């Protein structure tokens, strides 16, 4: 029996003005897994997310969601409605609205800002908003303006806004960028807690963070998968050391807390 993947990219290519940003890319995601994607700047990580979400169309290759949904035929909106949510690097929240309202505006089934605000909130919607705020650790901040949150809190709010849409797949681009160590650690716990209920792809540079959350790591280089494995496996892979870790081992291999705890 062939395994079933929730998301699959196979033989994907994308050239921008003669530059091959994505080169015969294969990626297979199991339902509920938390996958970390690392790779040097320009490796094609964000472009890969652009292709999954329909922002960029691949020149060739398969991009499939579930058993038989061909994502290359759908637009960004349709792909989002299927349950593929994406968080960009910089948080985009409604700064003049409260944290609570931000989640409200994002609720599954809400029809945009204006209609959400003029419609009455049902009890089940209210419960759902509180549940999301609890999940992202912002319950105590429900009534403050989103603009007054710290950078890290804004990132969590935006993750909450995605969760409000109950996505099957969550794509998160460099969530720890600009965060304090404490915020980074909390973000790691949040993402670990979301895995299983959602399939999560995290693009990340911060290796401490990668160590905290990673089960399976995919290393991208020149638009192609260089290798895949545990953090220890990829950090000790000669090809990775050469292209990504600067030709020398940065860290002695040791037990990975996240893996040991799993
Ligand atoms: P990463 O996220 O791994 O740093 P990107 O996916 O952003 O890398 O970029 C990969 C390469 O593709 C870069 O050289 C970038 O300049 C190029 N690229 C990405 N998107 C576009 C685009 N829309 N138009 C032209 N070039 C692009
Ligand atoms: Mg990027």
With strands numbered from the N-terminus, the spatial order across the biggest sheet is 6-7-8-3-9-10
- Strand portion: 15-25%
Structural class: alpha/beta
CATH architecture of the largest domain: 3-Layer(aba) Sandwich
Report the uncertain regions: 249-262
* CATH fold description of the largest domain: Rossmann fold
Provide mean pLDDT, rounded: 89
Bound molecules: adenosine-5'-diphosphate, magnesium ion
Task: Describe what you observe in this structure.
By secondary structure, this protein is of the alpha/beta class. The protein starts with 6 loop residues before the first strand and ends with a helix. It has helices spanning 45-52, 76-81, 99-106, 112-118, 123-135, 151-163, 181-194, 207-213, 231-235, 238-243, 257-261, and strands at residues 7-16, 19-29, 34-38, 60-65, 69-70, 84-87, 169-173, 199-203, 216-221, 224-229. The longest helix is centred in the C-terminal third of the chain and has 14 residues, at 181-194. The chain contains eleven helices and ten strands. Helix 3 crosses helix 4, helix 3 crosses helix 5 (123-135) and helix 3 packs parallel to helix 6 (151-163). Strand 9 and strand 10 form a beta hairpin. The strands form two sheets. Strands 6-7-8-3-9-10 form a six-stranded mixed β-sheet, sandwiched between helices. Strands 2-1-4-5 form a four-stranded antiparallel β-sheet, with helices on one face. 35% of the residues lie in helices and 23% in strands. Magnesium ion binds at residues 45-46. Residues 45-46 line the site of magnesium ion.
